[in-house]
Design brief:
Largest sheet: 10 strands, mixed
Structural class: alpha/beta
Distance between the termini: 32 Å
Helix content: 25-40%
């Protein structure tokens, strides 16, 4: 007798009945860029994405909540920057104000604060920059790890004080999760989870984000602290295990699309929730192809997000979140 797998693909209802991987807005995290201005400024390299005022960020959170998206993640864009990134841990900083405003207006939404210094430093790096004597070019500068930990911990505490439900350290400094966890606990925020950017690669896919956030390094690059894209599973497991041991509550893989094998690896090896970051370059590739008529945007986005879920993602940070939630509401995948 011939085996006929096609029987279960015959109708939409049969396909839905036997579908192994489910995609739902409750699995999405909606990213919001928040700047100091009162207007909404479109980001040219990320069609459909804008820099928002605090008031507009609140509206974005309302919209996400109405579509069944439970969480947002905030990225701040301050007017003033300095070499210490002091705006990141300013109690009156842009993220602190946005967090407080969203929690006051839409308390049901989980607000995640990206915890880094790159948007706030004048040099665009994720920590304190240190000149290396006797070196030239990109090697003449390095990010000083341990002094940066103190500033990242201060940032996380200030975000928790503002009302952030979750802090998400993304600087890729050694020991950042442990330093932040200790600082939160000491300040009375033992209940605030840490969403660790555990496996974060030095990727070309971040290009549009750096344009959006104004965080392109003015000297050197981030290859000395973000991971080598050609690194193997040993390095990924080491980074993830260190974060788990230091108290991370969730583990993130960034970018997602080119690293689905790593995402799957973490899902197998750890019991913690795993988050995929569908990054700006991945988003803009699809938007550009769709605008040119090369691909069907809806089908491509939902297939991409489903692939991340199949690889093991419990949640997905994606700039497609609002559109994908509408598509799933109006016509389930």
């Amino acid at each position: 007798m011939m085996d006929r797998p096609r029987r279960l693909r015959r109708t939409p209802a049969l396909r839905a009945l036997t579908r192994e991987v489910q995609l739902h807005p409750s699995q999405f995290i909606h990213p919001i860029f928040v700047h100091e201005r009162d207007d909404v400024t479109p980001i040219a390299t990320m069609p459909g994405v804008s820099r928002h005022s605090v008031a507009s960020a609140v509206q974005q959170a309302h919209e996400a909540h109405a579509l069944g998206i439970p969480s947002v993640i905030l990225f701040g864009i301050p007017d003033d920057k300095d070499d210490q990134g002091s705006g990141a841990y300013d109690s009156g900083g842009i993220i602190q104000r946005a967090v407080a405003a969203i929690k006051a207006a839409v308390p049901e939404v989980t607000v995640i604060a990206d915890t880094c210094l790159c948007e706030y430093t004048s040099h665009g790096h994720c920590g304190v920059l240190h000149e290396v004597p006797g070196q030239i070019g990109a090697d003449a500068w390095t990010v000083d790890n341990d002094p940066s930990l103190e500033l990242l911990a201060r940032t996380a505490v200030s975000q928790a004080q503002a009302g952030a439900d979750v802090v998400a350290p993304s600087a890729m400094m050694d020991g950042q999760v442990g330093a932040i966890r200790a600082a939160l606990d000491a300040a009375g925020y033992a209940h605030v989870p840490v969403m660790a950017y555990a496996v974060k690669y030095a990727s070309a896919y971040y290009g549009p984000f750096r344009d959006a956030a104004g965080s392109t390094p003015s000297v050197g690059n981030r290859a000395t602290y973000q991971m080598d894209p050609a690194g193997g599973y040993r390095e990924a497991l080491r980074e993830a295990r260190l974060d788990a041991e230091q108290g991370a509550d969730t583990l993130m893989v960034k970018p997602a699309l080119a690293y689905l094998d790593v995402l799957s690896l973490l899902r197998r090896e750890f019991e913690l929730p795993v988050v995929a970051y569908n990054v700006s370059g991945e988003y803009s590739l699809i938007k550009a192809a769709a605008a040119a008529g090369y691909m069907d945007e809806r089908r491509t986005v939902l297939e991409t997000l489903t692939g991340m879920r199949r690889a093991g993602a419990d949640a997905i940070i994606t700039y497609h979140a609002l559109d994908a939630a509408r598509w799933l509401r109006d016509e389930p995948a």
